[in-house]
């Protein structure tokens, strides 16, 4: 069985976006290097540093399914029906869209984080599942569903916004020492949750 990984790009003060859902400088590192890498969409290249490319190439290919919230789905329009990473996206929502123009895309709409993790893990088999940072991450941590945390830390302070762990309320969670990869304008911190 693969791992469930809470993952996002985060400001130094812990935000994945500002209060208007703008990412500001958080994704600049995706376009500041000489190495071209891809997620699942061959039409969406990234240009990253060699260190970030090595990190991405050691993690993204292991992901088969992703879990996102309805907010991210709406902001990105579900990446026009092509998962950013992996083969299938599970969207946690109480109201699936009725007019999305990509009905045959590999997206499943699920009610609740526990059900989303169960379906995503079943789909992924021995591969990994990612949960995008925000309230879903906090909910998954509180439910004990997260195996690893992939925290790409950007040297910027947003001051306010949407937190990586949302409004996490739960038990203390301890992590192993991180794998640390220094990229250009990003530090990748990859932790294992101690059980």
UniProtKB/TrEMBL annotation:
GO BP terms, alphabetized: riboflavin biosynthetic process
Gene3D superfamilies xrefs: Dihydrofolate Reductase, subunit A (3.40.430.10)
Domain Bacterial bifunctional deaminase-reductase C-terminal: 113-168
Coiled-coil blocks: none
Stored SUPFAM superfamilies: Dihydrofolate reductase-like
GO MF annotations, alphabetized: 5-amino-6-(5-phosphoribosylamino)uracil reductase activity
Domain of life: Bacteria
Name of protein: Dihydrofolate reductase
Organism whose genome encodes this protein: Kribbella shirazensis
